[in-house]
Amino acid sequence: MDKFNNMRVFCRIVELGTFSAVAKELKLSTMMISKYIAQLEASLGVVLLHRTTRSLSLTSAGEAYYNRSKQLLEDLADLEASTAQLGERVKGTIKISAPIDFGGMYMVPAIERYLKRYPEVKILMSLDNKPPNLRVGSFDISLLVTDTLDPGVVARKIAETELCTYASPDYLTEKGCPQTIDELSNHQCLHYVDTPHGEFWLFNVDGELKKIKSDWVLASNNGRALCEAAALGMGIVQAPRLSVAPYLQSGELVEILRQYRRPALAIYATYLQRRFYPAKLTTFIDFLLEYFER
């Protein structure tokens, strides 16, 4: 029996929540995953997991074993990474999660520059507006555009952007330009979904945050699609300035309700705190700070 392998499988079951999810990740059958856990419990002489057809939970012994096992596996990973780093070669795969617009528009050029500097590194980037739980272990770095952070992670500010409101000149000529946020109820709205503020648009009113529920005609989780719709005169959009920048430069969109603009949102690179960081991670974070400062 490979106890380290069974320990890894057990930790992934706790983190992913089901045997089938771990089986899919490891490209094994659910039966094989069950066998590994049975072997581990038999060798320890305790039950680690309460299992029913509908739920999975840790026993008290399982919780204690998970906490110690997780630390041991992280220590082993740190040992391997620190030893490999003695060869003075930066290599390996970095798994990144990024918001759809920021990742597509800004991260690809940054990654291209980084890979020229460190050609033995590979980068896997997933684009999703919903931030991942880094503790699950699917990503090394999560890039976030936010004003709230998980206190359990390290967060490095790499840039910032403003959340503003925009419309096309043609739309404003036809429908009129709202002078106050209360007038938005008379306009067509284009709503950005999958954001921390849900169905609401956020505004700064005399230094205080005010939420307004948008009466949208089109909603999407893709800022570029919403900006294109706004440029075609379909309505008003509220979006991070970084998503709208090309449309502002071309004159297809203009900012409105400027007096209600919120303070800038920070863009963070976040990652789990640990005792040792592999060179691939530290070089990439340092590179992002340097790149976006320019």
Automatic annotation (TrEMBL):
<dbReference type="GO" id="GO:0003700">
    <property type="term" value="F:DNA-binding transcription factor activity"/>
</dbReference>
<dbReference type="InterPro" id="IPR058163">
    <property type="entry name" value="LysR-type_TF_proteobact-type"/>
</dbReference>
<keyword id="KW-0804">Transcription</keyword>
<feature type="domain" description="HTH lysR-type">
    <location>
        <begin position="1"/>
        <end position="59"/>
    </location>
</feature>
<dbReference type="GO" id="GO:0006351">
    <property type="term" value="P:DNA-templated transcription"/>
</dbReference>
<dbReference type="Pfam" id="PF03466">
    <property type="entry name" value="LysR_substrate"/>
</dbReference>
<keyword id="KW-0805">Transcription regulation</keyword>
<comment type="similarity">
    <text>Belongs to the LysR transcriptional regulatory family.</text>
</comment>
<keyword id="KW-0238">DNA-binding</keyword>
<dbReference type="InterPro" id="IPR000847">
    <property type="entry name" value="LysR_HTH_N"/>
</dbReference>
<dbReference type="Pfam" id="PF00126">
    <property type="entry name" value="HTH_1"/>
</dbReference>
<dbReference type="InterPro" id="IPR036388">
    <property type="entry name" value="WH-like_DNA-bd_sf"/>
</dbReference>
<protein>
    <submittedName>
        <fullName>LysR family transcriptional regulator</fullName>
    </submittedName>
</protein>
<dbReference type="InterPro" id="IPR036390">
    <property type="entry name" value="WH_DNA-bd_sf"/>
</dbReference>
<dbReference type="InterPro" id="IPR005119">
    <property type="entry name" value="LysR_subst-bd"/>
</dbReference>
<dbReference type="GO" id="GO:0043565">
    <property type="term" value="F:sequence-specific DNA binding"/>
</dbReference>
